[in-house]
Predict the 3D structure of the following.
Amino acid sequence: MTQAPGKLAQAPAVPHIVTELPGPKARAHVEFDRQWTSPSLPRAYPIVPVRGEGCVIEDIDGNLFLDFNAGIAVTSTGHCHPKVVRRIQDQAATLIHYAGCDFYLPIFAQMCAELARIAPMKEKCRVFLGNSGTEAVEASIKLARFATKRQYIVAFLGAFHGRSYGSVSLTASKAKYHAGFGPLLPGVFHAPFGHVADLKWFDEVLFDRLVPPTEVAAIVVEPIQGEGGYIVPEDGFLQGLRAICDKHGILLVADEVQAGAGRTGKMWSIQNWDVEPDIVATAKGIASGMPLGAMIARDSLMTKWGPGAHGTTYGGNPLACAASLETIELLEGGLMDNAKARGDELLAGLRTLQGRFPSAIRDVRGIGLMIGVEFDTAERAEAVQWGCFQRGLLVLEAGHTVVRMSPPLVLTAAEAAIGLDLFGKAVADAAVAEAPGADAARA
Ligand SMILES: Cc1ncc(COP(=O)(O)O)c(C=O)c1O
């Protein structure tokens, strides 16, 4: 691409679609990709991004899309926020790598102190830096077992925590994530998620029939389930988990990888319920697209392990830290507030849409810019996702029947209104034609 930076900002009103979709270059690229990449990657639809700015993505054919995905809830400050770009460029020209696990990097410790400062715990915290969400969850599992000297972990049906062995053992959103990979990590139980009434499962099933609470190290929960379908728990559910943990000395681990980093209008989604976790796992939006994952834990837990217990070569890479330090400044400087305001607008608009198509749209839910629209069938959700793509709006399915919206937190009111309009048109089409065959269109 040779266009000058900032070109997208002066582009015609977005979306601006200049080819059929996918365009000729996108089709050729998809063919090339198919020859060389792992077939395990679950590609949603043939978008081939080559440039991004704010909430706009330009594809390989020069089409401009309005992005309500943010690279799966990652580019929280918008694509290529100039301040984030500058911070990465400055850091790249200064020091790219020096293994924070074995040596002392100023920006590494600064990053840890910053995440400890914004942690949702009253006690002083410490931070372990990795590169991804799954590593943050792995670190949480290891610390929870190490610190409690207990072995069992409870996760939830519908949960998604990643795909490395520990995380995938906690994951229970789709059976395909486990298929062919057993045996998984032993000592993991899955509880029902979301309703206060579900909490009785702990006493009546887990502690009564399966294992004593004194052997459970941690309950790992996404305060709002992400990949499983953007499911917001009932008020009282997370408070109930906290009470169970307090009663039995179990650690509460909040997986904030998707819902955290300001997306719900609070830095951490669990703060919407005023619940304090013992450990937080974060990644995705915390560094605007640079690979950074972190486990934030209470000081009294983290100081239980010593040198060599856990580490990683690239974790807390200076470029990722630079991006994250700038990201946190931007989140606190107004983007969290914007997420709540734009989210409220989107939710109101989507509820009106649900009123127009009550049999197709089963539910509209979310907080801030973490919004799920549940359809009556998986085919309908798929058709809406495809219909949005055809109109220049990027959204992504979650669970089996849900379309999620997780735009960058820089979304403007005008962009939210355009997105709503396009989404409404895609729903209207999908509601009349019984799922017109995204697969056929893709072929
Ligand atoms: C809640 C949650 N936890 C963990 C992960 C895994 O993160 P990563 O893909 O960076 O390993 C994800 C990824 O979608 C997630 O949504």
In short: Residues 1-5, 435-443 have pLDDT under 50 and may be disordered. Residues 7-80+334-442 form a domain with the Aspartate Aminotransferase, domain 1 fold (CATH 3.90.1150.10). The longest helix spans residues 318-356. The CA atoms of residues 17 and 63 lie 5 Å apart.
